[in-house]
């Protein structure tokens, strides 16, 4: 046998990680007092416990206190008590605490890693080299944000007490993603880990004690859905940050509707791993190992859909199978293990069920010839080929080591297939042609795109999704905004619209001629129902009539907005010019608009003229900002640059207020347009003629057809239709509290981003009712990772 033969025949021996320290920690702890509330360790009020066991053997690890609503009350009270002092403390003192947490975690790094692998089943190589170091980096990075708050977020303050709920797949890392930015922002937290993986959070609470975190700033409660729901519904909490399944995310969106709680949702995914024919196939295969078999595929951003260009499909699949045959399935505490057990028997059953169903639907499922350990919840890495786009394995999040493969012919088809999912979390693009990769990346509906790489994360780079993958970002500057609130100038409480009666007196002259239509796809069109809404002057006379828009009209308007490619694809400079032109044309008719305002609202001529002038000024402002509110470039501690691109949200529905009917409408529509969104606006129900008078201004201003659509009618009804419409990506509602709450609750179909005034208007004339706070809501931040080097 020569040396080469020996090398190939070489078997790996076992390389177990020592677990004595973790076992000693487990043996020494009283898990019946595992609730960390107000700096004390408490038993659950109901006296209940739940079991956590070891996925590699099924052996019981601990019986852990199971919190109920009374415990959540206590934790929220502790967080509220600690809040005033913590939020008022200097950025420097908060930075020191965050840094101390990071350093203390570093000192117990190995214990964290071993405990994580024991409790979750993930290979020690991953917990040791990825989860724990990234978690530590998160705390150290956010120490800096605590101190930079005034400099980088002027006019913002922490939202208050935050409720945080996390899943079991990255227990410590998700905890870090939640707690670090909250503490940096001056918030206090009540965090609930997942019931499968409570252990590292308990160790983390011990670290908080040692690192000098003031009592009550961090409260960690253990429990299941009941405790989670109690957090979500608690009136003492100002923000909910949730990571978990889309199913529970939707429950939470509904439960928090109308509560005024800030909400961020980091949900599931079905991410595409796109390999073009000019890719380096060997690198792509290694990427796939990371993309789908990392953490047994129990990763929200797992590259679970392999899209491969037809010409190289056979070659790539052959390489993937060869590589899969070498993946080592075994004990998570063996340093050579690539694939450990799934977290629990229920998860294993779920994955098996989905694979069986995928096969029933026509997929060919292949697994390497390997023997699984005799105990534990193991599943072999699985490759599904012949998968149709509708197959369950192409559509459902499996959350297991299962890769579904499809082929594409050209770039357009790759993008179409990649976006053929209700999720939008992440994607990988593999090509040696950086031009092609950067052409494809912006067209993918995903919050994170990795070029020639996968699963790269950093505390400085935002992470989060679109569509049913949720909203909000974690990490970096955009992640900090999730824990901060800007002071917006509040206006009066908005009362529900009353159905206007026919004006008692007719106007003199030409009222009938003034009947306005709807504005859809660049054309004035009659409402589908052929009904009109009567508009009264301030004196109760007939000012005119407008179309009574219906569900069908909103649908047509949304289709027109979606079909309009010219606006989102226009350059920012181009959009800026059109907005300037709109302002110019409105200014040409300023006197006419001012007269209309006076006629309808009874405003004095001066006040009316001021509102028109401010509307023009606001259009000017956003015209100027259209090419200035740009993304950033991050330089994470990796050989990569991360481009944090500002992308339009998509189709944005806008329900405008009655107060300042022209300025309010323009203050909302202009920032949305400036960032490249297309808009379906429902103007003030009471004063819609201000919006219908704009049709001609829009028509003269080179606005592409479909970029702005206006549907007049009953605000509450049309807001509901927009909320339920799955092709609307964002919805801004400034209407009465009930309409706002319903819009939030009814948005769960596609989890569109809803910005509601919660029944309050803004002081639209204030300078603070304009600028970055609006532009931020008009964009999604997409982080595109571009590695470099040989
Ligand atoms: P899950 O939604 O079942 O549970 C998540 C958490 O929510 C747990 O702590 C659970 O106890 C709690 N919970 C359950 N029902 C609740 C309710 N009604 N009210 C409040 N809380 C409730 O998810 P999971 O199975 O633990 O985790 C897997 C999911 O998490 C996957 O879908 C995965 O994609 C997602 N995930 C997303 C990200 C991301 O950043 N986008 C990261 C990790 C995991």
Automatic annotation (TrEMBL):
CDD domains reported for this sequence: ALDH_F16
Residue span(s) of domain Aldehyde dehydrogenase: 41-487, 534-754
Keyword annotations of the record: Oxidation, Oxidoreductase
Active-site residues from the entry: 266
One GO MF term: oxidoreductase activity, acting on the aldehyde or oxo group of donors, NAD or NADP as acceptor
Source organism superkingdom: Bacteria
Keyword flag Oxidoreductase: yes
Keyword Oxidoreductase applies: yes
PANTHER family assigned to the protein according to its UniProt record, in alphabetical order: ALDEHYDE DEHYDROGENASE-RELATED (PTHR11699)
Similarity annotation: Belongs to the aldehyde dehydrogenase family.
Protein name: Aldehyde dehydrogenase
Species classification: Bacteria, Pseudomonadati, Pseudomonadota, Alphaproteobacteria, Hyphomicrobiales
